[in-house]
Amino acid sequence: MTRIKSAVAFGALLPTALCLPQNAPTDLKGHGKRYDMPPAEERAQAVVDAFRTAWDGYYTYAFPNDELKPVSNSFSNSRNQWGASAVDALSTALVMQQKDIVNQIIEYIPTINYFQTPTEVSLFETTIRYLGGMLAGYDFLSGPLADLADNKTNVDALLTQSQNLANALSYAFDTPSGVPYNNLDFNNRSNDGGVNGLATVGTLVLEWVRLSDLTGNTTYASLTEKAESYLLNPSPPSSEPWPGLLGMDISPINGSFLDAHGGWIGGADSFYEYLIKMYVYDPDRYSTYKDRWVLAADSTIAHLTSHPAPRPDLTWVAMYDGQNLSLVSQHLACFDGGNFILGGQVLRKQEYIDYGLELVNGCHETYIATATGIGPEVFGWDSADVPADQAAFFNKSGFYIRNANYQLRPEVIESFYYAYRATGDTKYQQWAWDAFLAINATTRVGSGYSSIENVNVEGGGGFTDFQESFWFAEVLKYSYLIHAPEAEWQVSKGGNNAWVFNTEAHPFKVFSGSS
Ligand SMILES: *[C@@H]1O[C@H](CO)[C@@H](O)[C@H](O)[C@H]1NC(C)=O
Ligand SMILES: *[C@@H]1O[C@H](CO)[C@@H](O)[C@H](O)[C@H]1NC(C)=O
Ligand SMILES: *[C@@H]1O[C@H](CO)[C@@H](O)[C@H](O)[C@H]1NC(C)=O
Ligand SMILES: *[C@@H]1O[C@H](CO)[C@@H](O)[C@H](O)[C@H]1NC(C)=O
Ligand SMILES: *[C@@H]1O[C@H](CO)[C@@H](O)[C@H](O)[C@H]1NC(C)=O
Ligand SMILES: *[C@@H]1O[C@H](CO)[C@@H](O)[C@H](O)[C@H]1NC(C)=O
Ligand SMILES: *[C@@H]1O[C@H](CO)[C@@H](O)[C@H](O)[C@H]1NC(C)=O
User: Fold this and answer.
1) Where is the active site (predicted)?
2) Which pLDDT tens digits describe the chain residue by residue (515 residues)?
């Protein structure tokens, strides 16, 4: 997940009429194409080829800036000008064993000055992309992939730079409650003074705890565990409409929640994801987190499960405001199937796995219904709210499109990956292969890959000229791993995971007692 993973404003999702796609789909031309699957080795290699294409474009026209603009062969700096795409690409280059790229990146990382940036810093985005990317790089290169580093000095620097970055960020937690501010200005050590969000507060603890465990400096863990304590014991009670399901706005002044709306959506999403992932990381220290995940999961199954009227065979998870449901979901939310599957494996509860597989199927349907074979950013299924020009589409597909763009997001393929790892059913490899080919066919442009305007017109309706850093970190990693050979970092079938993926798909070694 990610992206303005958490900056998606809930309010903006509510009034359907204000939120129609610019080019509302009027046709019924579902893609639903099933491609021939070559052998796994060839599928994995095709994803490596896409990774190298995207990297070459970035390295030629953008490095060491944050992102490639592939249409204009130029660059942008949306993530503080520290080379976001390079740091985000590292753990994918590692699992793909692309030694030349690994060394290009680890030679660069020691040169970053994390104490300086011209632009506002997001504590959350910086943690999941930069800190997560460097820690995963360190875990791989000081462990099973040590042979890929030409120079050990650059490996040690990954941990030093992680500490430098966390030290630069840590003043964010200096608030009356210990709930951090998210938006920071390093130039005068100020913050935006605003409220923080559920995902932005609740998606720090895995990275900062890993950093403490690797360095012995327990402050990183303490800061984020303190912030998380307000999410594990939410107040006031009205901010928890059902057990475990929370509102999204939190005051750094007193740690109180200020609302009761939410779901498994952008802005809330990875808080729920990390409750179970912390338990995967260390079941001894984080069993309370697991208990809160179980409450949220059970409440979701009981209260948020929703089937569209024309397609009762499909399942999506609704959003809520208090106990009122809103029949809207997002590409971002499609990580939910994978997260239920992970929880079911780890807790050995088939009910969660089965529910997760239903959600995976629902998100797959959003892909195969469109003209490109790629699912939309935001979709709804409220029969009373269907835009007239999408009525036929809704009758057939069970949803209508509220925001038609595709921002190179990973969540649907991420959940295919968990589904495949849990079941071994090659259907999920087929779905991931079809999705990868559709994305490769539609978003490949100029020197790389670009976000597109409209998933429901052939060709994607135009390019935004932007290659997200999480294209490297997430989409290409999950697209690759689902076809790749067994390895200790692959999600395990039986729930005994040696590695756990952060929300940006950076794998960390699980806690083993020492580090
Ligand atoms: C390894 O990297 C360090 C720091 O970048 C550099 O000073 C050193 O010369 C390098 N060693 C080799 C053998 O290239
Ligand atoms: C431990 O981390 C904290 C928080 O960033 C930092 O202030 C402190 O200097 C670190 N301690 C050491 C010994 O590096
Ligand atoms: C810090 O700098 C930013 C940008 O220059 C400015 O908007 C903000 O008001 C400053 N904050 C403080 C507390 O000085
Ligand atoms: C907590 O602080 C917020 C402002 O950030 C305020 O609106 C709210 O009333 C406070 N809640 C309590 C219980 O003090
Ligand atoms: C829930 O819906 C009821 C009935 O429409 C309405 O009175 C109430 O204000 C709504 N609650 C919220 C939190 O939106
Ligand atoms: C969609 O289905 C409804 C209910 O079956 C029907 O009344 C309506 O005519 C259908 N609309 C289109 C455009 O097919
Ligand atoms: C991906 O797209 C490129 C450019 O259109 C094409 O050359 C390549 O064959 C595609 N990959 C696959 C596996 O179809």
Assistant:
1) 125 (proton donor), 269, 377 (proton donor), 411
2) 444 443 343 333 433 333 333 333 333 446 666 788 999 999 999 999 999 999 999 999 999 999 999 999 999 999 999 999 999 999 999 999 999 999 999 999 999 999 999 999 999 999 999 999 999 999 999 999 999 999 999 999 999 999 999 999 999 999 999 999 999 999 999 999 999 999 999 999 999 999 999 999 999 999 999 999 999 999 999 999 999 999 999 999 999 999 999 999 999 999 999 999 999 999 999 999 999 999 999 999 999 999 999 999 999 999 999 999 999 999 999 999 999 999 999 999 999 999 999 999 999 999 999 999 999 999 999 999 999 999 999 999 999 999 999 999 999 999 999 999 999 999 999 999 999 999 999 999 999 999 999 999 999 999 999 999 999 999 999 999 999 999 999 999 989 999 999 999 999 999 997 65
Annotated catalytic residues are 125, 269, 377, 411
Domain membership of residue 218 as a residue range: 40-509
- pTM, 2 dp: 0.94
| Number of structural domains the chain divides into | 1
Q: Which atom of ligand 5 is nearest to the CA of 322?
A: 13
SS3 75: strand
Domain membership of residue 399 (yes or no) is: yes
Give yes or no for a cis peptide into 485 (omega within 30° of 0): no
- Residue 153 annotated in ligand binding: no
Distance CA 200, CA 268 (A): 8
Give the CATH number, domain containing residue 337: 1.50.10.10
Which residues are within 8 A (CB) of 128 and not within 5 positions of it... i.e. 6 or more apart? Answer: 2, 5, 203, 207, 270, 502, 503, 504, 506
Nearest CA to ligand 7 atom 1: 440
Alpha-carbon span 20 to 453, nearest angstrom: 13
Q: Report the nearest-CA residue for atom 12 of ligand 3.
A: 190
What residue owns the CA closest to ligand 1's atom 2?
153
**Ligand with an atom nearest the CA of residue 157:** 1
Q: Is the CB of 440 under 6 A from ligand 7?
A: yes
